[in-house]
Please model this.
Amino acid sequence: MAGWNAHDIPDQSGRTAVVTGANGGLGYVTARELARKGARVVLACRSEARGKEAVERIALEVPDAVVELARLDLGNLASVREFAAVRSDGRLDLLLNNAGVMAMPYGTTVDGFETQFGVNHLGHFALTGLLLPALLATPGARVVTVSSMGHLLANIDPGDLNSEQRYRRWIAYARSKTANLLFTHELARRLAAAGADVVAAAAHPGYAATDLQTAGPRAEGRRTAERLMALGNRVIAQSAEAGALPALYAATAPGVRPDSFTGPSLAMWRGAPAPSWRAPWTRDDRAGRRLWTDSERLTGVSYDAVGA
Model:
């Protein structure tokens, strides 16, 4: 793993990948590098305009890329179902659950969930469940969910999953990223119990320069906070190209283990991909099962193929 970079991605010819949030930042880099290695990549994007721009950029950077755009709004379960309906019975080698929002002002999704929990966790939970038939039918398939070192700030609160009792933007973000890891933990357990040839793993980018950091302050008109975040991106953060490497490693490197967590090697902050430390609560079997049950109830998506 030492020094691993995009040149080390194995040949992806003949493989199909779905990357959520692929119109910019980490998702764009992930989609581009998979396409560069020969994968057919579906860019799952909320904004069709930005998605089209991403497709055009990839075509310029990787002239022989095979990419397509599909609209997906993770904050709208009807959109998730529409996206999955035409892909649930085809080949799917890689599902990269990358899209997310961070430290946003309080809001709710179309379905009434707190935005960060709804988009970062519930949207991807529903998407993965609906695409599970395609994943199970594809030997060696992988599901990689992008979490964050920000998960260390808070465990989930099973009594207040939607932050209805109290909303603190960074705590809500941390809980959604903890939910990503609990989801990966429980999915890996269920896949193993079912004898499925699918690996569920997680990754995080460390501190990578994307528009994720500035989106929240911009939405609230907090100009000073937006400038500070932008300064941090310029001075401290690593590039989006470097930040995407842990997810690319988890998605393509040989021998990636179920429920593994890959991040930057230097203090979880920057550097080449390496095994990353995670909070003990993200491997809590009881919490994982409870979150799973709650997520099935809230989304209406059941993972019948992998049992309980």
